[in-house]
């Protein structure tokens, strides 16, 4: 509260010191990538898929991922696409099947994020 002419007034947002919220704390590209990743992880199924892939040393066939959930194949494919679009996972075709793994550039971030979750 500020005092003006003997009466209290509420401090407005513009009166706050600028040092508390610098605009350059995060790079715009880094921020956008983090937002996309966190949005992708804001779903139980996607988080579980990501944890499954993070725990595997080898790529996992989409057929095996489908078996681990009580969801239809198109729903699993949608979740995989969201994770892929967020740059968290990658895939490769082997014949008629797709195999999924952590994206190499996101692997360290994924492992650190999953390790921070409460057990």
Secondary structure layout plus pairing:
Blueprint: E1 2-4, E2 7-9, H1 28-41, H2 44-55, E3 60-61, H3 62-67, H4 73-85, E4 89-94, E5 97-102, H5 107-115
Antiparallel strand pairs: 1-2, 3-5, 4-5
Helix pairs in contact: 1-4, 2-4
Structural summary, described in words:
This protein is α+β, with helices and mostly antiparallel strands and about 120 residues long. It has one domain (about 25-115): Winged helix-like DNA-binding domain superfamily/Winged helix DNA-binding domain (Arc Repressor Mutant, subunit A, Orthogonal Bundle), CATH 1.10.10. It is about 45% helix and about 15% strand. It has helices at about 30-40, 45-55, 60-65, 75-85, 105-115, and strands spanning about 1-5, 5-10, 60, 90-95, 95-100. The strands form 2 sheets. Strands 3-5-4 form a 3-stranded antiparallel sheet. Helix 1 (about 30-40) runs antiparallel to helix 4 (about 75-85) and helix 2 packs across helix 4 (about 75-85). The protein is elongated. It starts with a strand and ends with a helix. The mean pLDDT is about 85.
Highlighted features:
single chain; about 120 residues; alpha+beta; Arc Repressor Mutant, subunit A; 3-stranded antiparallel β-sheet; two-stranded antiparallel sheet; elongated
């Amino acid at each position: 509260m500020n005092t003006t002419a003997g009466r209290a007034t509420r401090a407005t947002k513009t009166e706050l010191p600028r040092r508390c919220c610098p605009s350059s704390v995060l790079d715009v590209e880094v921020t956008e990538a983090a937002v996309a990743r966190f949005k992708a992880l804001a779903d139980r199924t996607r988080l579980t898929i990501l944890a499954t892939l993070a725990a595997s040393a080898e790529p996992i066939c989409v057929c095996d991922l489908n078996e681990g959930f009580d969801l239809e194949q198109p729903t699993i494919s949608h979740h995989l696409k969201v994770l892929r679009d967020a740059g968290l996972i990658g895939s490769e075709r082997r014949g008629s099947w797709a195999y999924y793994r952590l994206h190499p550039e996101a692997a360290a971030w994924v492992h650190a994020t999953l390790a921070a979750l409460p057990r």
